[in-house]
Structure formats: structure tokens, C-alpha cells
Amino acid sequence: MTPSDDLVCCPVCDTLHEIHGVEEGKRLRCVRCNTVIAVDRPEAIVRIVVLATTSLVLMFIVIFFPFLELRNGVFDSRASVFETAMTFNRGVMAPLAIAVTLFVIVLPVTRLVSFVWALGPLSFDRPPLPGAAFALRLAETLRPWAMAEIFMIGVAVALVKLGDLATLAMGPAFWSFAAIVFITALQDTQLSKYSIWTALDTASQR
Prior knowledge:
Blueprint: E1 7-9, E2 16-18, E3 27-29, E4 36-39, H1 44-64, E5 68-72, E6 75-79, H2 81-86, H3 94-123, H4 132-141, H5 148-162, E7 167-170, H6 172-189, H7 193-204
Antiparallel strand pairs: 1-2, 3-4, 5-6, 5-7
Helix pairs in contact: 1-3, 1-6, 3-4
């Protein structure tokens, strides 16, 4: 089999398909597992950029604004995600601080910035920026490691355990983080690797 730009591998079952373009409004599915492997969504790039930019703004709130507030009698404590991570930056707990900062803040922000860098100019019908292909590849690679939803599950468990010990109040960072989880899921539904890479290659050749 000779290499071809028209060959697309199914991301689920690895079946090879030969695609010569996608008609407007159509979806192409894998013949073996029925997974969507290509879709014509001209507006998808704009949506991805808008959602990624929105998530970046919300991440600023998550990092620097109060996440949770605990009240127990005269005791009152509130902290942002960044402040919480920094409380474990000494001794044997230092690796935990590094892990929280990396998986909850650094990697999600890096992935969002990569999307904006790679696809931002395309949303304005302009040529891509230098390194756009690397940025898009980086965003795809970081997808399993940007663990916003895992962090929210951990927070939910903590809320259940702490509910009987103190009065809890959710800060603006909590609701912003919840919005990011929803926006990220919505953004991933807009992703079609074939269509986005085809659009990036076409824009690069202008």
C-alpha cells in the first residue's frame, strides 16, 4: 500500500478508509465500528476557538479566585486552586503540589492556548501562525492528561465527606471550573481530526 493523504485511520478500530473529501453537512463513519471519522463543519473551527478562549478566561478565575469556603463556628477559610496546591509545596507532599498544578492548571491551559494558536487565524480566514501544526498536535496529545473533569470528581467526593464537618460555600472559581468541564466536553464534540487537519493544510498552502 502506498502512502496517500486520502487514507484516514479510524481512531477506535484502526480501519483504513480512503476519503476524497466530505460533502457539506455530511458525516463519514467507519465501516467497521460506525465511529465518525470525518465531518464537514465549516463553522467548527470558529466554535473551537471561541470555546477555547472562553475556557482560558474562566481558567484565570479558577486560578486566582476563591474555589471553596469552609465555615465552622468562628473558623472561616477560603482558597483558590493555586493557593491550595501551594500549601503542599514542602516535604513529602511536594509531589502532590506539582501534580495538582500540572494536571489541573498547566496542561489544561497549555492545551487551550495550543488550540487558539493553531486555529485562531483560520477562524478569520487567514494563514496559520508558525508552528500551528505542532500546536494542534500538542493539543491532541494533551487531551488525556488535562484532567479537569477528574479534579471535579475529587471535589465532589470531598464535598460529601466535609458536608457534616463544616458549612461549605462554592466560590466563583468552583462554578467557573464546572463551566470549563462542560465547555471542554462541548469543544471535543466539535473536533474532527480529518476536517481540522485538512483545513490547516489547505490554509498553509495559500
